Amino acid sequence: MYKTEMPNWKRKCFFLKYGIKGQLSKLKGIMKADKLSLLRALNDNRDVFPHQLGITAILKNEANYVQEWIEFHKLVGVTKFYLFDNDSEDDLEDRLKPYILEGTVELHKKYGHGKQREVYEEAIAMAKNETRWLAILDLDEFLLPLGNESVLDILNEKKRSAMLIGWMIYGSNGFVKRPKGLVLENYRKHATDELLADYKIIINPRKAIRVVNPHFVQVFGATTDETGKRIWAYPYKTDPQALPAPKKRVRINHYYSKSLEEFQMKSQRGFADNNGKVKKNPRGMSDFKKHDQNLEEDDAVNVYLPKLRMAMKLRNNDQSDNS
């Protein structure tokens, strides 16, 4: 899906319309929230915490990917992970044990369907007093700074309460079966910058009002993109005025499908954000084909790969020595 061509004045009118709707929704959230908590949020401007950047995620049967995901994000500045195990049947907890023991990971159990927003509300509450910025991601999403700036450099340069970061959709790279090696090494081909795709958010957890959906949290203060442009409502890719997200400084590498085999395994897990209404996942081959974007290739992750391989080797050696 690509942007709809229209006169600038018309696009601005749509932005105004959807921005007003977004602010009215935010006002409703404020009216429903606990007033004492809101007052604290308004006056809480702390910026010194044990952790400057954390991530929360909900996982199900993703033990094979979790070590690479954690070690990569440690390289880009993440020091705390709030993870929620949603009925996993693999050895996730064993894989995470070293990280739990050292305090890098907090692992919580979450049972049942449609728990994504509930989990994020809990993670925000956990992070309020110990983490400056909290990213809300999935295990197939990698937060990638581009150029010489760190994620924290970008977050801290403006007075903001949240930042939306655009997806870069990665395809199967022609793999039918899951290949050996790292996700970041195997899957190099992706969509163009012009493809309309979703965003993920990094928030100041003390400014959170409510989780609207897995991609957006309403906050006190400004929500911006990487350029500092104010965003007044979540920019759904299906909105008529939708534009591609800016992805010059930072992006989310989204390995949605990976190989066909991995996509089929993902389909069996179900959606984590369906509020329990749908237990069977509707993902099918049409969904795979839509996300199988192999149009361009870049080497943006290469700068991290040697350190990532070394970190994983050291971690695995430590685990072997302790087994």
TrEMBL record:
Query: Pfam families given for it?
Result: Glyco_transf_92
What Gene Ontology cellular component terms go with this record? cytoplasm; membrane
Where does the record say this protein resides?
A: Membrane
Statement: the UniProt record of this protein carries the keyword Transmembrane helix: yes
**Membrane topology label:** Single-pass membrane protein
Q: Spell out the InterPro entries in the cross-references.
A: Glyco_transf_92
The alphabetized UniProt keywords are: Glycosyltransferase, Membrane, Plasmid, Transferase, Transmembrane, Transmembrane helix
Gene Ontology molecular-function annotations: glycosyltransferase activity
User: Where mainly located?
Assistant: membrane
This protein is called Glycosyltransferase
